[in-house]
Design goal:
Structural class: alpha/beta
Largest sheet: 8 strands, mixed
Strand content: 15-25%
Protein name: Esterase
Keywords: Hydrolase
Order of helices and strands: EEEHEHHEHEHHEHHHEH
CATH topology of the largest domain: Rossmann fold
GO molecular function, one term: hydrolase activity, acting on ester bonds
CATH superfamily of the largest domain: Alpha/Beta hydrolase fold, catalytic domain
Family: Belongs to the esterase D family.
Strand order of the largest sheet: 1-2-4-3-5-6-7-8
Number of helices: 10
Number of domains: 2
InterPro entries: AB_hydrolase_fold (IPR029058), Esterase-like (IPR000801), Siderophore_Hydrolase_D (IPR052558)
CATH class of the largest domain: Alpha Beta
Radius of gyration: 21 Å
Length: about 325
């Protein structure tokens, strides 16, 4: 037995896993007042004459290891991107989810913020900082990366999944010239009563006037509106506390009805498809691209790794 009373022992010389070709450092932001953990993957292959394409991956604690590994694989074909993951200096999952909401959501009335059972109580100060986060990315982080790595200033990509996918759409609609490529994976368009869609008319005007010509990719899993076979443990545990004397099969049935209602409300697949089609209808100038893809048999979780491979293909093999 080990000292912590576990029946299992560690291998001699056991070390933490490191992501190949990667490093990390913390950056304080004067704009947002927060500190971010930045993860960088630099390909082994020499940079093109114009510099490496850059993919900025939000929720970097989670998305960076996958995207860095995929970019290293792409490097075997002779093309690769410098991946910049933007995360937070913590390994606590609950803290990560709480921190992202402030950075990735627009100003939102408290009445439109739904309390998640697995997160701390709603605090209005923990939401609505998307514009400050955007400014951190382009005004503070971008020059820092450009000063440390040979990068292509004209080939920068913003990637986000879920709430960060909605954030990506918001930046696209309000700052269409800030990145060359925008990838919104499983975007939470439902947030704040779909307020992100209010900016599409102005965006369309800018694109059709030739003010910007971004390349846009909207992705979603085609099972994201289906009720999962296994419900999240926190949901069944909450119902257990509320209905301790109700038989388990009935609690599960109630939980499934609740989840189905939420799936219909969120309309993940329908909203993503509608946005993709609306973007494709915009008559932009040369260089403007809008694509939509639904991954077969993927849900909100499994669409994430699928979206990362598709993102790199979109950027590196246009």
């Amino acid at each position: 037995m080990t000292e912590n009373n576990s029946p299992y022992q560690s291998f001699p010389g056991q070390d933490p896993v490191h992501v190949y070709g990667s490093s990390q450092f913390d950056v304080p932001s004067e704009i947002s007042g927060r500190t971010y953990r930045i993860f960088v993957f630099k390909p082994d292959t020499p940079p093109p004459a114009s510099g490496y394409p850059v993919v900025v991956a939000t929720d970097g604690n989670m998305t960076f290891p996958i995207m860095a590994t995929m970019s290293a694989t792409f490097a075997l074909t002779g093309v690769a991107a410098l991946v910049v993951g933007v995360g937070y200096p913590t390994d606590d999952p609950v803290s990560l989810f709480s921190l992202r909401y402030r950075d990735q959501t627009p100003p939102t009335p408290l009445s439109n913020i739904q309390q998640r059972p697995d997160l701390p109580p709603v605090n209005p100060d923990d939401y609505g900082g998307s514009e400050s986060f955007y400014r951190f990315l382009v005004e503070e982080l971008r020059p820092l990366i450009a000063g440390c790595y040979p990068v292509d200033a004209n080939n920068q990509t913003l990637y986000g999944h879920s709430i960060a996918g909605m954030f990506t759409l918001g930046i696209l609609f309000n700052h269409p010239g800030s990145f060359r490529n925008f990838v919104a994976s499983s975007p939470s368009i439902w947030w704040n009563k779909c307020s992100v869609l209010n900016d599409i008319p102005d965006f369309a005007y800018k694109i059709e006037a030739g003010e910007a010509a971004p390349r846009v990719l909207v992705l979603v899993g085609d099972k994201e509106q289906d009720v999962p076979a296994t419900l999240p443990p926190q949901m069944t545990s909450i119902l257990m506390k509320k209905m301790p004397h109700v038989p388990s099969p009935i609690r599960n049935m109630i939980a499934r009805i609740f989840v189905k209602k939420k799936m219909l409300e969120y309309r993940m697949v329908g909203n993503a498809r509608d946005v993709g089609e609306r973007l494709q209808e915009i008559k932009g100038t040369s260089g403007y691209v809008a694509r939509f893809h639904a991954f077969a048999d993927e849900d909100h979780l499994t669409a994430l790794p699928a979206s990362i491979g598709r993102t790199l293909s979109f950027v590196l093999m246009p």
